[in-house]
Design a protein that fits this description.
Distance between the termini of chain B: 69 Å
CATH superfamily of the largest domain in chain A: MetI-like
Structural class of chain A: mainly alpha
Helix content of chain B: 40-55%
Oligomer: heterodimer
CATH topology of the largest domain in chain B: D-Maltodextrin-Binding Protein, domain 2
Strand content of chain B: 15-25%
Number of helices of chain B: 18
Structural class of chain B: alpha/beta
Order of helices and strands of chain A: HEHHHHHEHHHHHHHHHHHHH
Number of domains of chain A: 3
Distance between the termini of chain A: 37 Å
Number of strands of chain A: 2
Shape of chain B: globular
Chain lengths: 384, 411
């Protein structure tokens, strides 16, 4: 009994986070797995939910300006239920639905209600259909994206731009992750020195990672501009100006450099914590044995921060594969999109939510496999 | 004590008055291209609310940021404004999804003069014989030239009868990179800027079966000429080469002698770079004359509760609103009657844009299912490869025509 009560209390305590994670993480993941097998178009989400006054809709469809002297027979000859539902109510019908409407839609009842002034009420598409379909009402209860099986995945395999974006993501990741890890470690070692004004340096290394990426992107847009400062410096050594962000060969490396600059400071903090855990006597002992700074770095510091390296590489890998904001702000040409950006474009610019979900699901699996492999390769230390 | 009773009475009265004179609220949304435009729209809304005081209240809710994305998500959530802007290039995508309400009934009921609009302006907003939006204003492309640069190098100003060769000859005399002056600034990754040249050369982008015909010799010649201006003759730059965001900006900085832009560039230059001494003329011609027509319509959302009230607001926007916009923003009205009453043919700022409407082509690419965003992104990206000398025009055109149906047909 006590156990059960403890159990309940425990879950009550973590309930808020379960709800938040469930609604904003778990549910979307499963929803996008489901949508990846459909042709979900978000613009059709409201088609059965929009409310309307039925009489108004019929008047507008039949072009009736006065409700006097109407007779059911004349109206029935002008009334095409499938066209009314599609054009006037804005509900798209597939073949099966059209066939069902032809058989079971009660146009006569609708026209009688209309002439009898019984249609002057608000309703939505699904209520309308359940009232005037004599059978198979459930086919019209709401917008359900059509099940297309593996079509989205076939489309993905044959989409050369998708493979290009995947390569861009991988390229981004295999360059940025090691470089940012190494620079972060160097920064941490530097920041761990006991010299005057070290707080200032720590702060300036860390500031890029807490600055909004929109602001940083604006800054780098100016730096990378053709008449910008980077090209001016290159001009001193005789290199002709390069249009970094417009040129499709240099755009991605330019963003990569910026990404390294922004994230290195963040991971520096992780390494700094690791470095401060290294016992002082180890360092002092090595000094007595006559080890130089460089040997000390490779032989003592590196092995001791291995758990942090593993952690930073894992986070770096996931972070770089998912990079979106900086790409969104700075990349102009779709040839330089990363997969995350390509998912966004398909979902929100092309309204191909199903296809975007398929790529997202594939990409999720890809990152998962990659992380697992990486964890196998870099074994975690027991005390991490 | 007394004052409290007084307040209570006032409070009760205001509650009652709201209940008694319930006004229908109609919302209006659109992007804002400049603060001046927002002010103009606000005064249109004010005028409407005065006219319909106590009956309909129009509320203006400008949509900042990525308009297309915002509109898509608002329409899918059923929270979109009752009346919203829809650009001709992607209108069909929304119309065919069922999110936009047809307007035929109101046209009949209120005798709205459809013939007051040029058919080429209505075409992007029609589907299956129904009309889904009426254009609020339109723009065409014209040739802007910097008089000071032309004078400096003793080149005569462009004329109405300029051919491609005339433009190229002048450009070669005007181009002085060592002084930081370039002859032309072009958009290297925008099909709509290459299209006028294709039409001028007697070519087309798609035929009546919606199949690509970019591989015709006329089209290829035109694309070749456009990109040769940069790749072969070295007389054209892209805006970012001089650190500008777009052609108008590059022109305003006095670094380029010629650009091809619309009336938005005119008002931009007048406001931002008043010192620039420039002239405007029609687009150059080759076998025939051609330019692009850009239009934006007012469309009604399917989820609008009171569509009749929304129509009244839309009609007002298309009459009095259009007049106010023409007077305050110098945009070109879509209605013949307003073009006439506002004397746009005499206005030097509008003249060159209006007179090209007869041979202009509406900016949208018809596809079987109405979706053209993906198609356009792919074409524009490939065009930029030509600009960067990564592919030849033939290669690019072949690649585009081969993949066309694949890009256009999805979903």
């Amino acid at each position: 009994m006590k156990r059960v009560r403890e159990w309940i209390a425990g879950y009550l305590f973590i309930l808020p986070i379960i709800i938040v994670v469930g609604v904003f993480v778990i549910y979307p993941i499963f929803a996008s797995i489901y949508y990846s097998f459909t042709n979900y178009n978000p613009l059709r989400q409201m088609e059965y939910k929009n409310t309307f006054n039925l009489q108004d809709q019929l008047e507008q469809y039949l072009l009736i300006f006065s409700m006097k002297d109407l007779n059911v027979k004349d109206l029935l000859s002008q009334f095409d239920p499938a066209d009314f539902i599609q054009t006037q109510l804005g509900i798209k019908l597939d073949k099966d639905q059209k066939a069902m409407i032809e058989k079971y839609f009660d146009s006569k009842k609708l026209m009688e209600d209309f002439v009898g002034l019984k249609t002057n009420k608000r309703m939505n598409g699904s209520q309308f259909m359940s009232e005037y379909m004599s059978k198979y009402k459930e086919m019209f209860s709401g917008y359900t994206p059509a099940w297309v099986g593996l079509k989205n995945f076939y489309q993905m395999i044959n989409d050369s731009l998708f493979w290009k974006t995947l390569w861009n993501s991988i390229f981004f990741s295999i360059i940025v992750t090691p470089v940012q890890t190494f620079i972060a470690l160097l920064l941490a070692v530097a920041a761990n020195q006991k010299i005057r004004g070290i707080k200032f340096f720590k702060l300036s290394f860390y500031i890029p990672s807490i600055t909004s990426s929109a602001a940083i992107s604006m800054l780098f847009m100016l730096l990378y501009a053709k008449p910008g400062i980077i090209n001016r410096f290159l001009g001193f050594i005789g290199i002709p100006p390069i249009d970094w962000l417009s040129n499709t060969s240099t755009a991605l490396p330019a963003v990569m450099a910026m990404n390294i600059w922004t994230t290195a400071g963040y991971f520096m903090i992780v390494f700094l914590a690791g470095l401060q855990n290294i016992p002082k006597d180890l360092i002092e002992a090595s000094e007595l044995d006559g080890a130089t700074g460089w040997t000390r770095f490779w032989k003592i510091i590196m092995p001791l921060v291995k758990p942090q390296i593993s952690y930073v590489v894992t986070l770096g890998l996931i972070g770089t594969l998912q990079v979106f904001d900086q790409i969104y702000f700075l990349i102009q040409n779709q040839q330089n999109y990363t997969t995350a950006m390509y998912i966004y474009v398909n979902a929100f610019n092309y309204n191909q939510m199903g296809y975007a979900s398929a790529i997202a699901v594939f990409f999720l699996a890809f990152i998962m496999v990659l992380t697992l492999v990486q964890r196998k390769v870099v074994k975690e230390e027991s005390y991490f | 004590m007394k004052s409290r009773v007084f307040l209570l009475v006032i409070g009760l009265m205001s509650v009652l008055s709201i209940g008694l004179f319930a006004v229908t609220v109609v919302t209006l949304g659109g992007w804002v291209s400049s603060p001046v435009e927002q002010q103009a729209m606000e005064s249109v809304v004010k005028a409407f609310n005065q006219k319909y005081a106590g009956q309909i209240e129009l509320q203006y809710q400008p949509i900042p940021g990525d308009y297309l994305v915002k509109l898509t998500s608002e329409l899918s959530a059923g929270t979109a404004p009752d009346i919203f802007y829809l650009d001709s290039s992607y209108a069909q995508q929304f119309i065919r999804s069922g999110a936009v309400y047809p307007l035929d009934y109101f046209v009949k009921k209120y005798d709205f003069p459809v013939s007051d609009f040029a058919t080429s302006l209505l075409q992007p907003f029609e589907y299956n014989g129904h009309i889904y939006g009426f254009p609020k204003d339109f723009s065409t492309l014209a040739l802007f030239y910097n008089k000071d640069i032309f004078d400096k190098y003793n080149v005569p100003y462009p004329t109405d009868n300029w051919t491609w060769q005339d433009m190229l000859n002048a450009a070669q005399k005007l181009n002085h990179p060592q002084d930081g002056i370039y002859a032309l600034s072009l958009s290297p990754n925008a099909l709509d800027r290459v299209m006028p040249f294709i039409f001028q050369n007697g070519g087309e982008v798609v035929n009546s079966q919606m199949q690509p015909v970019l591989n015709s010799s006329q089209a290829i010649q035109a694309i070749q000429f456009y990109f040769d201006l940069h790749n072969k003759y070295n007389v054209a730059i892209q805006p970012s080469d001089v650190g500008a965001g777009w052609n108008g900006d590059a022109f305003g900085r006095g670094k380029v002698a010629m650009i091809m832009e619309g009336p938005w560039a005119y008002s931009f230059l007048k406001e931002t770079y008043p010192q620039i001494n420039f002239g405007m003329t029609v687009m150059p011609m080759e076998k025939t004359r051609a330019t692009m027509i850009y239009t934006v319509c007012y469309a009604m959302s399917r989820s609008t509760p009171d569509k009749d009230a929304a129509w009244k607001a839309m009609e007002f926007l298309l009459t009095d609103g259009m007049k106010i916009f023409t007077e305050r923003l110098g945009v070109i009205p879509t209605r013949f009657s307003i073009q006439k009453s506002e004397n746009v043919f005499e206005n030097p700022a509008d003249k060159v844009f209006v007179e090209q409407v007869n041979y202009g082509h509406g900016w949208f690419i018809p596809t079987p299912n109405g979706n053209s965003s993906k198609l356009l992104d792919n074409i524009n990206s490939e065009l930029y490869n030509i600009w960067q000398n990564k592919v030849t025009v033939d290669q690019a055109v072949n690649y585009i025509t081969q993949n066309w149906n694949n890009w256009a047909s999805q979903q």
